[in-house]
Amino acid sequence: MSSSERRRIRPSLVAVLLTALTTAAALVVGSPGTALADGATFPPRTAEIDVPGAVGTSRAGQEKALLEYWTQERIDEAVHNGDRQDPSVEHRVSALARELQGPVDGPVLEPVGKILFNYASGSPGSCTGTVVNTASGRLVITAGHCLEEGGPGGEWHKNIAFIPGYGGEEDLGVFTAANWATDSLWASDADERYDIGVIVLNDNAAGEQVADVAGAFDVRTTPSTTAPVHIAGYPATGGYDGNHQEHCEDVTEPTPPPRDLVMAECPNMYQGSSGGPWLYEFDPVEEVGDIYGVNGIFDGTFVATPKFTSRTLQHIAVMEIAASQI
Asked: Which H/E stretch holds residue 312?
């Protein structure tokens, strides 16, 4: 049995909860993006494709043009992006964190991949995303700022595509985005506590979902206490070329007030690794674990994630409804 098959069949209590939330969301919302019971909204945005050969064609023709657009040359150029590097983050290293920290070697995790996009200006950029285990097999979770700048007047990215397991031994192909959404509080206020985004991917030319090709990780809420974490990403600055999946392990701890995030010491998670997964109880042999965070802000030493809560699961549930309508 392949690692991707193991990841897809691994049972999870949170996966059961996610199924229940998807059902509940379908009952509460008239269409994806309508406010849920707690006022949260996650309006899916139809993927914008603006590349040569896309204008005036069918949606299938636009997707084909996007696949042709992302040549290796353009992929290599998509490394200079505006990820949120924040030198003002105060940090500390506890005795517990010193027990396990820093960059480590690791396998290329196939559900973890490279997100390609163009800013509204047309300049290329890249982030990291991870396939999550849902019924549709089409969802990728990442940081909100990998999809939209955030805050009043923040512009959305375009020409988004995802390459699972980028840099690994096997070419798993390129998947185009059908739609995507960030948390409404990221879009309206650039609130770093909600810097989370979800992408719905189209099937590949063979009609396969990305999770069937690359596998997927379960998602869960963030542990309430410090916990060992395994982080992955595609850093494209700080001496890294964006072509290799980098890994880091640490014991997490809360960010100092007034910030309300979770942080880990990972000095290799430079720009390009934004959106990379925080994996709980990661098993490097079976390559299984649960996602409970994504790389958000980075200060050159520490990387921090928003906390995954029931609101995050609602976000995924709403996007699963959008995925079922493709």
From this structure: helix 310-324
